[in-house]
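Shape matters. As here.
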Amino acid sequence: MAFLLGCLALLTAPVQAAQAGPYGDLEGLAADMAGSLREKTAARKLFLSRDNIKDALTGETANASVHLARELESALSKAGFVLSPFYEQAEGALAVTWRLEGAQAILFVHVEGVKGDGIQALRFVADRRVFPPDAFADTLEIRAARLAGRLLQGKRGLRIYVNPIIERRWRYGCEFSEYLTLKLRAALAASPYNEILEDRPVMRSVGEMRALQIQAKALKNLAASEAHYAEANAVLEGFYLAGDREVHVNVVLKDLQGRVLSGGDDMIPRRMISFSLVNDGAGEKAEVMDTALESAGGMVRIGTTRGGRYQVYREGETLRFLLQVAKPLQVHLYNINPANETAMMFPRDGSDGLLRDGVLYTIPDERQTWDIVVVPPFGTETVKVFASTKRLPIPKLSEKAASRSFAEGKRVAGARGKIQDALADAKEIHWRDLVDYYRGTAKRHGAELYEETLFLQTRPR
């Protein structure tokens, strides 16, 4: 709220005479601003946020906010100011607004004291050409930078593990989520006070596996397992939901116990997005796996040794999955490839499927004689885990079996409870009936059931 009040004060405060250019570049404009501020204010410890550099008419930031903030940071330091990352610890907060008039940019600079005592707004006039060509354009990249600024405002000493932005309902990734995650990550990495962890395998050797199992005993929040093993102390999560004209993006920064540290959201016009918002393969499988209604309940977590929730594997690469449960559970793990060929990956080799809490399991593990290698067909690979408090019968999967849950590619509306009851008696089912089979069978046996789905992309080398 302090930033908004600062901008309102800027628009209503008395304005001193214009500081005229001409400026050869943005560095010169910033240097003039810093010099004028040094003469007009006694404050020497300033808070500067790119979110407080914005269009005077719309209140929006743009690329100009990023460019000017960068130059002001340097110019203010050279002029003897100290920049504080925390508003409350600064002697004054710097606010800049601009309006465009033909070939000129009119800028107003104001310092608001933390206690409300400020200086008159300083007015500067510059040729728009001193700004980079994209300065006043609104782009997806600047939207990502804005979100990053909101997340890290006042934050220091964080080691952040970045999860990809995924679709909110079906929880899959796509071209848009890949790009936005990349740009958000880059914007976060620009912070001098926090560290963005580089992508790295969660497990690289059998020797490391022993250490990870020890760490697993202390892990209470399974949702933050990858971040825990990467030695992070914060996790970034994000979702998007596409509308007809806008895409709602929401990002949240949490600690490893799941407590929210900060958050931000944005409504991005679809005209600004040149990337696909859908993942046809994952969208179809998400409906079949009913990811919108599944619940892991904090009891089961599946990932890979690569870490992250949206991953791309190339032909010939080997996959290894990580499984962890928060209490003893019977686990059944399935893989559905892009051709809809379905296989059970766990239990195998005589295992009874029982997993204990406090242990990080690999599938396959080093003792087993089989590997998971990426081969055609390429596309979206779906991995589904069912974890229950009681041992459940394993169904035989057959393409010849008629699907009860789906007809002509659409889920049968209504009577879902009856479908699940009928499937609980079946010995042989269609792969599209997996979810209703396990939900019906768990109910029949009085077992609690937890589910989680992981989507992977496989591509030619």
Remarks:
- DSSP finds ten helices and 26 strands in the chain.
